[in-house]
Every structure is written in structure tokens, then in C-alpha cells.
Amino acid sequence: xxxxxxxxxxxxxxxxxxxxxxxxxxxxxxxxxxxxxxxxxxxxxxxxxxxxxxxxxxxxxxxxxxxxxxxxxxxxxxxxxxxxxxxxxxxxxxxxxxxxxxxxxxxxxxxxxxxxxxxxxxxxxxxxxxxxxxxxxxxx
Length: 140
Prior knowledge:
Blueprint: H1 2-25, H2 28-31, E1 32-48, E2 54-61, E3 67-74, H3 77-82, E4 95-103, E5 109-116, E6 122-124
């Protein structure tokens, strides 16, 4: 009887311990800093339509001519499609401006919020329900 009780308690503890990293992964605050807003102005290099987050890779040319490649996390493809996106919304080579928040570790990664296209059109690219700043405003 004691062995079964121990096995049940150990199993429950393992489930609780393994759930914490999964929850933290989907938390804005786990990876990104709300106090580090960034404006990334560059050229789309690659777009990954993957779950649970899409990724937009952007080449940014600095004042010294050096190119840095930023990786911008966006919402899931399903959520982006509901907001008006399609796989053709971000062709490789298009120049865009991304407003977002930089990674806590200072790397060239950001959580994207709004993307501005050359014609001035804006689309929300962020993940909703993750605790990111300003989630409640209209996203269309």
C-alpha cells in the first residue's frame, strides 16, 4: 500500500514539475522585456509559419553597413490568418518596420507586436494571451 501511495505522489509531483516550464514558455515575461521596446526597420529574409509561434527573420543594416539578423516571434499561423494575414503577406525582400519588445538576454530576438508595411498598412503579429503589454487594444 505504501509503495502505491508513494508512486501516486511521485507521479503527481512529476506532472506538476513538468507543467511549469510549459506554462512559462508561453509567458511573454519569461522571454521578453516589456521595458525594452524595439523598432526594427529592415528587410524580410525568411518567414517560418510554425506552431506554436511564427518567426520572421529580418536583416537590419546598421549605420556602419553591418547587417544584423533579427528573429521576431509572432502569433500562431492560425491566429495570424484570423487577423488578415496569409502566407503571402510577408514576401522575402519586403521592407518592414516591426514594433516589439527585445529578448531579456539582449539577443537579436523580439516579440513582435505591430508590423508596418511600405504602404503604411499595419497588422498585429503578436501572440495574444501571453501577458504582453497592451494586449487589450483592437488588433485589426
